[in-house]
Amino acid sequence: MISVVLPVYNEEDSLIELHRRLSGIAELVDQPMEFLFVNDGSTDRSAEVIDRIASGDSRVIAVHLRRNFGQTAAMTAGFDQAVGDIIVCLDSDLQNDPSDIPRLLAKLDEGYDVVSGWRRERQDPFFRRVLISRLANRLIGIVSGVHLHDYGCSLKAYRADLIKEVRLYGEMHRFIPIYATWQGGQIAEIPVTHHPRRFGKSNYGLSRTFKVLMDLLVVMFFHKYNQKPMYVFGASGLFSFAVAFLAGGLAIFYKLTGQKSFIETPLPLLAAMATITGVMCFLLGLLAEMLVRTYFESQEKKTYVLRRGNGASNY
C-alpha cells in the first residue's frame, strides 16, 4: 500500500484537478494507493470539496483539523492516519506534479529510505523565493552535514517505518531527511517538475525563513545533546567560572598593587555574577540529565535504533 499525504490550506480551486491527476497515477502504479487530504483549517470551501471527492472515491480519506495548525502538523496528521508501507507527500496547489510519484517510488526501490524532490527549474519569484531558498538550503547543508539541493520541496517519498518514528514540531517537516540520516537512513534526491501557481496565492512569506533558521538550531541542539544535555550546560558553566576567576584575580591584583580598590572597578561584581551563572548552569545541566532519563525510562524508549537483527525487533 502506498499512502499519499496532501496538506490542504485554502486550495479549493486545485483539488478536483489534483484528484484527477492522482487517479491517473494510481492506474500506473502496481500497488494499491490511498490519498489522504488533510484539511488544515481552511477558511474557503476546501473542506466541502474534499468531502465531495471522498464520497465518490473510496481511496480518498478526508482528514479535517479543527483549526490551522501549520503544514508540519498537517503532514504529521497524515502520517499518523496513513496505513501504507510507503508514504508520499506533496503540496496540494498543483505546483508539485503527481506524475513524478512513480519516479520517486522507483528510486525508493533501489534501497533508499527517503527520496527527496529537487525543484531544479523552480517556477517561483527568484529574489523573493528562489534565492532565499537556495541560501537557506546551503546553510542547512553546512550546519547539518546532510547536503540536499532543495530541503523545502514537499514532494518526498518515505518508508513508513522510518517516518513514523519522527516527531515533528514548528516548521521541521523540511528537516525529515536530516532526521532520517541521523538514524542511519539512506537518502536520495532526484529532479522533479515544478509548475507555476495557477490558483490562489502562496502561504509562504519571508518570515518563514527566520522560523526555519530557529528550527534548525533546535534540531541541531537535540541531535547533539538530546542524551547528554550536561555537555552544553557544563561547558557554559565552565566558561562562566573561567570568567569569574579572571575577573576576581584581576580585581585582587589591582587591590594589592594599589591601582584600584574593589569599589572602583566592576570586576568584583562581574566575578560574583559569573560565579552565580556558572553554578546555575551546572544545576540546570543536572536537572536536564534527570529529565532526559525520566523521558527515556518512563516511555521505555531506547537510545538506539536497530537496522536489523536475528530474532530482534526494530525500536
Report on this model:
- The protein is built from 10 helices and 7 strands.
- With 315 residues, it is of the alpha/beta class.
- The protein folds into 2 domains: 2-224, Spore Coat Polysaccharide Biosynthesis Protein SpsA, Chain A, CATH 3.90.550.10; 230-298.
- A 7-stranded mixed β-sheet has the order 3-2-1-4-6-5-7, sandwiched between helices.
- Strand 2, helix 2 and strand 3 form a beta-alpha-beta unit.
- Helix 5 (126-144) runs parallel beside helix 8 and helix 9 runs antiparallel to helix 10.
- The protein starts with a strand and ends in a 17-residue tail after the last helix.
- The mean pLDDT is 84.
Keywords:
315 residues; alpha/beta; Spore Coat Polysaccharide Biosynthesis Protein SpsA, Chain A; 2 domains; seven-stranded mixed sheet
Strand line-up across the major sheet: 3-2-1-4-6-5-7
Poorly predicted ranges = none
CATH evolutionary superfamily of the largest domain: Spore Coat Polysaccharide Biosynthesis Protein SpsA, Chain A
> How much strand?
5-15%
Number of strands: 7
Summarize this, please?
With about 325 residues, the protein is an alpha/beta fold. The chain has ten helices and seven strands.
Give the helix/strand layout.
Layout lengths: L1 E7 L6 H12 L6 E7 L6 H11 L3 E5 L6 H11 L4 E4 L11 H8 L5 E5 L7 H19 L11 E4 H4 L12 H7 L4 E5 L15 H19 L4 H27 L10 H32 L17
Parallel strand pairs: 1-2, 1-4, 2-3, 5-7
Antiparallel strand pairs: 4-6, 5-6
Helix pairs in contact: 5-8, 9-10
